[in-house]
Amino acid sequence: MLIYYLFIILLSSSFCATDEKIHDANEPDNGPFNFKFTKLIDIRLGGKNFNNVNDIIQSNINEAIGVDNSKKQSPEMYLVNEQHEEQNVRAERSCNTDQNLIINRLDSITGKLQNIQNVCQKSNCESQTVSNIGINSEFCDRLVGLSKLQYCDFFEEKYSKNYSNATKSNIPKSCKEIQENGQNKSGMYQIQSKSSFKPIFVLCDMETKDGGWTVVQKRFDGSENFVREWRDYKFGFGDLKREFWLGLENIYNIVGFEANELLVEITDRDKIKAYAHYKSFGIGPETDGYPLNLLNGFSGDAGDSLGYHSGAKFSTKDMDQDTVPGNCAETYLSGWWYKSCHKSNLNGNYINLALPEQYKFKGLHWEGFRGHEYCHSGSRMLVRPSTPK
């Protein structure tokens, strides 16, 4: 596992950056090796071991990346073999480094890493590494998505609380279920929605508006950078004890298959809070662009500044899915359900002060509370099942 992830990190960091948009797995003709390899990485990062994926999904991915289902060939081996055939395609991209040299170098590095692992007693080495950089189960549990991957995925099975002993049947599906089981204290808990391949740690709010909420976004001090690309917003980032975005894929798994409600909490620069409550909330899958496809039943004193975005696909600076020329996400410095462009932007740049003219509309905005130009000092987005489990 350690060797695999080091190889993935090294290999993915070595490929040339391109202007190519991210495509879904149903569009095999729109991208060569990099696209195919990216989708395989996404499966791994999402905690879905390819060999254990549903047969239909496995077959669809095989078809999307060109693997012959009649042959006993893993997608990993197929992609490795295909590297050499795709050299000309990748060489055509704007890259100043010889790809063959990179691959040869990575092969050498991978071999050296394998030798290190063979010599090293795995448990002792991992234990020493964890100790040296201060990683423990509590530290790893609170990190979200790609922030966790940087430090903790090498040791997840060994150090993540209750992961190896828990089964899907006895892990709560939501913070609401945890509350119904008698836990009334806000904090970090482990949940696993019906569609998730593995459990995740989330922040549960058990006090606000009768509690039982799963917090999917939290901002209050600007400590986390929200000017990020598609994969960050897909898998999530940040720290559950500080600022974070839970990740579109996690949010979709939580709200995409059963009725949920949404609570938005806005905090202005005088620490006054306002709320927007939606009785129904849901987003679609990545193949559709994670659209805000269900939003109704508004109430609250913050104004309905999300309703304008209903039906919009999610956009980031490298994945433009808004409805206007140009890129709203690049202009307004965040990932959001942009249309033309926004009346709310809770992932906008954190600027906790009045803005000069050139920076207006680029902060943390919610038009219905203090106006469109006002930059707020904090926000939270919380979801909860709207029907009893």
Summarize the structure.
32% of the residues lie in helices and 15% in strands. It is an alpha+beta fold and 389 residues long. Residues 1-18 form the signal peptide.
Structure description:
The protein is an alpha+beta fold. The chain has 3 domains: 2-119, no CATH class; 124-159, no CATH class; 168-385, Gamma Fibrinogen, Chain A, domain 1, CATH 3.90.215. Helix content is 32%, strand content 15%. It has helices spanning 2-14, 33-45, 55-65, 75-85, 87-91, 99-119, 122-132, 137-142, 146-149, 156-159, 175-180, 230-235, 248-255, 328-332; strands spanning 187-191, 200-205, 213-219, 237-238, 244-245, 260-267, 273-282, 294-300, 344-345, 365-366, 378-385. Strands 1, 2, 3, 4, 5, 6, 7, 8 and 11 form a 9-stranded antiparallel sheet that branches. It has a two-stranded antiparallel ribbon with strand order 9-10. The longest helix has 21 residues, at 99-119. The radius of gyration is 22 Å and the shape is globular. This is Fibrinogen C-terminal domain-containing protein. Pfam families: Fibrinogen_C. Keywords: Disulfide bond, Signal.
Largest sheet: 9 strands, antiparallel
Global outline: globular
Helix content: 25-40%
Q: What's the CATH class label of the largest domain?
A: Alpha Beta
As for the CATH topology of the largest domain, it is Gamma Fibrinogen, Chain A, domain 1
On the 0-100 scale, what is the average pLDDT?
75
